[in-house]
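Field log, afternoon session.

UNIT: design team B
ACTIVITY: writing a sequence onto a fixed backbone
BACKBONE:
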């Protein structure tokens, strides 16, 4: 029996507790990963507080990075000793997965959120209580963790796992919304607005800036929108050309139109999930513009579109899951960008011990830390 240190949520809205758990033997297509670091994401907190579906007790965590220490039956894509970043899980068999679009896997929900199916998701015992432990196929708030091999993305052993852990969700979601959805080169995007510059939105700003450096005629206007002044200061340092604090303008849409010369923006990404912001995002589009929803509002929320100007301007509204990223290829690309100093994600991060998980969450919610990262070696 393998024991692990885990950060457990016993019931809805309870704080994390740090305790020892027992892991079941590896099943088919599972690997045991010794984690070096795990990023903390808003989705962990949403499940902890019952804002997204969950079952308890549960071990969350879905931005793990570590080293494969054992492989279960049938594992083919990774080997013992590989350094891996952990990303979302997918089935590898549905039409989307077979077309290398796992981000729209037909089993996305069942494989990544906490389901009541005990066969799939309980692989851990906490004081003799079966505990849900396959959140995003990894539950990487446990060290070691049992991980589905589909989640594993091999990376070069010289790359810093502690820094790159958040690539698997937050960074690929933000950067992917630019590289894979907005596609600034293909669509000749000159102006972009990013609503909400926390971890995801900051990654979008960095990605847009990196593209602008290579293609100076594109993305000449990058507007960051946020209510927190210190985040706007950082966004400027990361490549935003303009910033807007919604608390300081009367009309957000008019301000964006003013900055973009009256025509509206070519592209916009919403990372806030706030419905009034999503409506403003669509309203700020120029002709041929694309608006992308990345942030998730509460389950029943609905946005609205004034249809006539939408038709007249041939505009587009679409959603993106995990930045429409094929993680196996996209994460090594992002890791290379980081190593070239072109995606400075370390500037968003603060490191915490596992015992500091509740402080890490509090700091993230208050905005004093954009991206907390749990460092397992320090426990
Ligand atoms: Zn699938
Ligand atoms: Zn996440």
């Amino acid at each position: 029996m393998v024991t692990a240190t885990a950060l457990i949520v016993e019931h809805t809205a309870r704080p994390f507790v740090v305790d020892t758990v027992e892991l079941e033997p590896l099943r088919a297509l599972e690997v045991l990963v010794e984690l070096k670091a795990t990023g903390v994401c808003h989705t962990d907190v949403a499940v902890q507080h019952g804002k997204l579906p969950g079952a308890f007790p549960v071990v969350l965590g879905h931005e793990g990075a570590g080293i494969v220490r054992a492989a279960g039956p049938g594992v083919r894509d990774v080997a013992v000793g590989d350094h891996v970043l952990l990303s979302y899980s997918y089935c590898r068999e549905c039409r989307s997965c077979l077309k290398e679009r796992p981000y729209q896997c037909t089993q996305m929900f069942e494989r990544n959120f906490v389901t009541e199916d005990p066969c799939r998701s309980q692989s851990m015992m906490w004081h003799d209580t079966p505990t849900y432990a396959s959140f995003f196929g990894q539950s990487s708030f446990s060290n070691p963790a049992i991980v589905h091999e589909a989640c594993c993305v091999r990376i070069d052993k010289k790359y810093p796992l502690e820094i790159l852990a958040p690539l698997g969700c937050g960074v690929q979601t933000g950067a992917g919304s630019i590289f894979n959805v907005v596609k600034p080169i293909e669509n000749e995007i000159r102006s972009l607005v990013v609503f909400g510059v926390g971890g995801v939105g900051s990654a979008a700003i960095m990605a847009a800036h990196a593209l602008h450096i290579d293609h100076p005629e594109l993305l000449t206007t990058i507007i960051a929108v946020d209510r927190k002044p210190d985040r706007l200061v950082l966004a400027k340092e990361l490549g935003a050309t303009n910033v807007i604090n919604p608390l300081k303008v009367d009309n957000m849409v008019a301000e964006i139109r003013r900055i973009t010369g009256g025509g509206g923006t070519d592209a916009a990404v919403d990372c806030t999930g706030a419905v009034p912001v999503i409506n403003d995002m669509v309203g700020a589009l120029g002709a041929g513009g694309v608006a992308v929803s990345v942030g998730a509002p509460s389950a029943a929320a609905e946005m609205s579109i004034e249809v006539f100007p939408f038709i007249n301007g041939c505009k587009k509204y679409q959603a993106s899951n995990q930045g429409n990223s094929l993680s196996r290829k996209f994460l090594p690309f992002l890791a290379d960008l980081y190593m070239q100093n072109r995606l400075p994600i370390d500037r968003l991060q603060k490191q915490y011990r596992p015992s500091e998980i509740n402080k890490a969450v509090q700091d993230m919610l208050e905005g004093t830390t954009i991206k907390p990262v749990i460092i397992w070696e320090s426990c």
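LOG NOTE: The chain has a mean pLDDT of 95.
NEXT ACTIVITY: expression trials, pending approval
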